[in-house]
Amino acid sequence: MLDTKSQAAELISQFKAKNKTVATAESCTGGLLAAAITSSRGSSSVFSCGVVTYSNETKHMLLKVPSAELEQYGAVSAQTACSMAQGLQALSGADVNVSITGIAGPDGGTEQKPVGLIFVGLAINKSVVAFRFQFEGDRDAIRTQTVDKVLLLLTEAVKGDNFFEED
């Protein structure tokens, strides 16, 4: 597996080749994904914007995540990850909109939602999908693993021939 910097450079190369853009909405990673992408040369041609919506209030205000959804499912859920990605899509106009929400720890975990639980939302065209991951380690390790996994996910997905086809 490539290191974070190499993976970000590969992502930029793949997005440039397809002439597509990406935007990020992050909670538990606090902007680390956006920082990883923009640390590589050429990122300005593919990176649209990044927002950090750490609180439920900002998820609702900036990304239009419904308050009722946050109350019913919580901030750490597939539903919220999808809504974050869709809200980002409306905000950014990017081709690919990715969101991250989760529990990096060391506190905040429960039996149902343990520390290391991460949901990633991906909105492309009219499609939105959520991915669930469970990472181990301390706060820094969980956040790093999340960024690495999302960079890999985006890079592998954009290589697909039908990745950007309209529904």
Descriptive terms for the model:
single chain; 167 residues; alpha/beta; Maf protein; five-stranded mixed beta sheet; 6 helices; 43% helix; globular
Account of the protein in words:
- This protein has 167 residues and is an alpha/beta fold.
- It has one domain (4-14, 22-158): Alpha-Beta Complex (Maf protein), CATH 3.90.950.
- The chain contains 6 helices and 5 strands, in the order αβαβαααβββα.
- Strands 2-1-3-4-5 form a 5-stranded mixed beta sheet.
- Strand 4 (117-124) and strand 5 form a beta hairpin.
- Helix 1 runs parallel beside helix 6 and helix 2 packs across helix 6.
- It starts with a helix and ends in a 9-residue tail after the last helix.
- 43% of the residues are buried.
- The model has no long low-confidence stretch (mean pLDDT 94).
Q: How helix-rich are the residues, as a percent range?
A: 40-55%
Low-confidence sequence ranges: none
CATH class bucket: Alpha Beta
Q: Mean pLDDT, as a whole number?
A: 94
